[in-house]
Structures are given as C-alpha cells and as structure tokens.
Specification:
Number of helices: 6
Distance between the termini: 45 Å
Largest sheet: none
Mean pLDDT: 90
Helix content: over 70%
Structural class: mainly alpha
Length: 129
C-alpha cells in the first residue's frame, strides 16, 4: 500500500489498532520482547488498556490517561536496565508500525511525541545513576 493511500489516525479505535499491532511486534522482537515480557508478564491486557488511553490522550487531547509514565519507567529501569539500543529499537518499531498503518498530521504527532518521550526518558535514566 502506498503511503498516500493511508488515512490518518482519526478515532480511538485507530489508536487501539496501532497499539495492538505495535505491541504484537514488541512481544516477539529479539531486543524488546524479553524485556517487555519479563516486566509485563501475564498482565498484557492491563498494559494495553493503559497504552490505549495514553496514546489516545496524546492523539486527541482527551485526557483519558492519568499517571506518571516517567516515574514508572524510572522504577522499572532499576529492574531491567534500558540502554540506547533498546530505545532505538522501540522507536524504530513504533515509527515502522505507525507508517505501515497511517499517514497524516496525527500520525506524525504521535511519532514526534514518541521520539520526545524516549529522549527525555534516556536523559532521566542516565541522570538516575
């Protein structure tokens, strides 16, 4: 499918599809799968539910998500240290899946936000130690 044939993210259902496709790839990814599967364990439904709200809030400004992802990830980093390689792989997959499914301003917005979030997390993790 040509990128020009893709619609933009328009609904919460689109976000849910993006999140489901992305984490399906994450779970089997050689770099990320072992980390996510170790941390999330059998709680994937709960994690996905949170991610639907998180990315929906970013895409639509609907404030469905409440929480502090930075604090959670800093605490998780003490259990499984995350390095630049993992952040790069996460971003690569996120961009790839988003670009495969959607094209437009909202798709671009969430990719930009993903990159910004990853950058800030990397800085905070480095400063944590």
């Amino acid at each position: 499918m040509n990128k020009n044939d893709l619609a933009d993210i328009e609904t919460q259902e689109d976000i849910d599809e993006l999140v489901n496709c992305f984490y399906s790839e994450v779970r089997t990814n050689a770099v990320l799968g072992p980390i996510f599967n170790h941390i999330i364990g059998s709680n994937w439904d709960k994690h996905l539910s949170v991610m639907y709200k998180f990315w929906g809030s970013i895409a639509f400004g609907n404030h469905m998500y409440s929480g502090n992802p930075m604090q959670k990830h800093l605490a998780l980093n003490r259990i499984v240290p995350i390095k630049e390689k993992e952040f790069n792989e996460w971003l690569f997959l996120f961009y790839s899946i988003t670009d495969k499914l959607y094209a437009g301003p909202i798709a671009d917005l969430i990719k930009t936000r993903a990159k910004e979030i990853a950058k800030v997390m990397q800085i905070k993790i480095k400063n944590q130690f």
